[in-house]
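Please, structure for the following, as tokens.
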Amino acid sequence: FWSGTITWGLVSIPVDLFPAIRGRKTSMKMVDPKGRPLGRQYYSAEDDHVTQEELVRGFKTDEGEMVVITDEELESIAPEMTRDIEIRMFVPREEIPPPYFNRPYFLAPSGRSQKAYQLLAQTMSETGRVGIGTFVMRGKQYLVAILSEGNVLRAETLRFSAELRSPKDIGLPKRPKLAKK
């Protein structure tokens, strides 16, 4: 699925990344009453038909203005393509709240890295620590936690704090004060 290297300091451990979950096998498609697949057509606000070749990306500013973004502009801000999972720090497992966890992957030793891989997995398991780092996959940078479970390393992509909502954000009422009775 992906191969690279876990790195921190002067240590590098080659690994292969495998999804830890299976996708659903059943997929539905939109069809008409006779079972014929439907196509998608796009129209502008002025009700003009837009062809597939004319489609471009846009971003809506806080002021409500739509700004067109070119492929060249997107490429210029893309993260540097590397094959490294750069561990930036090790933290206690309990310091990562469950809502931050996003998608699990297994990390398997690659090449002759079995000994270093097992040493890292065992040490992380014994200390209860999790490696926090970043890596680039499919042109996108991910925040990741590396965990040890039964001497197997697992990578869990994490959500950034800006992606999470608080109870206040969705209008949950404040917790009422209850009588001691």
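The longest helix spans residues 114-127. Helices lie at 71-77, 114-127.
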